[in-house]
Design a protein that fits this description.
Blueprint lengths: L5 E4 L3 E5 L5 E6 L2 E4 L4 E4 L3 H18 L6 E4 L4 E5 L2 E12 L2 H7 L6 E11 L8 E2 L1 H6 L5 H23 L3 E15 L2 E7 L7 E5 L9 H4 L5 H11 L14 H10 L1
Antiparallel strand pairs: 1-2, 2-3, 3-7, 4-5, 6-7, 8-9, 8-11, 9-10, 11-12, 11-13
Helix pairs in contact: 1-6
GO molecular function: ATP binding; phosphoribosylaminoimidazolesuccinocarboxamide synthase activity
Keywords: ATP-binding, Ligase, Nucleotide-binding, Purine biosynthesis
Family: Belongs to the SAICAR synthetase family.
Length: 260
């Protein structure tokens, strides 16, 4: 089999050239980073779980009419996605005060916000992904006004859907981040949802206990990261109750099958 050409490697994923023009293979790693990669580690099996969770959420969003880059899941760690030009803006949707918002504004973590808050950050790890305004975005031409309208509208729609999705399984959607890209067709482009949606980029709290079921467990040295990610997958119906969880390591799985 011909060696695939790597296009890009980020903190949590590797992108490879896809089998057809206009496609990319997105590989989910187990690497974990926090505080703009100042803290690094590994969460065993995270890539497998994030691949499955993101596939599930993107599929549901596609069914309600949200355009996404997702085409299909290829295997345990890889997805086939549409190639897009990423808008260099990270969109953060907040329902509850937590993380940097609580620290910067002195709002107690866990405080329900009076309305959903959308923040924009300029995607640049070296600069620490600084918070920017729509004026900055317009001034530097990172996105047009029409594109920003589409992004804001989709972010609110995604938030409404995901709040209901997670509430139904006893999880409070505190906040999450989104990335969008331009899908080009000749000289025309449209904005679609890209990247991933998983416990890596969402704050998810158990509604009854307040237990964190996301990457904050890694950020704050709470431990139990794998179990938290598995719990999210289990509640979403992606891991059968009482089953042998999931295949988190391909080599181990192959050896086990060889012995059966």
């Amino acid at each position: 089999m011909a060696r695939r050409r790597q296009i890009y490697e980020g903190k949590a994923k590797i992108l490879y050239e896809g089998p057809e023009p206009g496609t990319i293979i997105q590989y989910f790693k187990d690497d974990a980073t926090a505080f703009n990669a100042q803290k690094k580690g590994t969460i065993s099996g995270k890539g497998v779980l994030n691949n499955r969770i993101s596939e599930h959420i993107f599929t549901l969003l596609g069914q309600i009419g949200v355009p996404t880059h997702f085409i299909r899941r290829l295997n345990m760690r890889e997805q086939l996605v549409r190639q897009v030009e990423i808008v260099p803006i990270e969109v953060v949707v907040r329902n509850v005060a937590a993380g940097s918002l609580s620290k910067k504004l002195g709002i107690e973590e866990g405080t329900q916000l009076p309305r959903t808050l959308i923040e924009y950050c300029y995607k640049d790890d070296a600069l620490g992904d600084p918070l920017v305004s729509e004026e900055h975005i317009a001034c530097f031409g990172w996105a047009t006004q029409e594109e920003m309208h589409d992004i804001a509208d989709m972010a609110i729609r995604i938030n409404d859907f995901m709040c209901g999705l997670f509430a139904a399984i006893g999880i409070r959607l505190v906040d999450f981040k989104l990335e969008f890209g331009r899908l080009w067709d000749g000289d025309y482009s449209r904005i679609i949802l890209a990247d991933e949606i998983s416990p890596d980029g969402c704050r998810l709290w158990d509604m009854n206990t307040g237990e964190k079921l996301d990457k904050d467990r890694f950020r704050r040295d709470l431990g139990g990261e794998v179990e938290a990610y598995q719990e999210v997958a289990r509640r979403l119906g992606l891991l059968p109750e009482g089953a042998d969880t999931t295949v988190l390591d391909l080599d181990t799985h192959r050896k086990k099958r060889g012995k059966d």
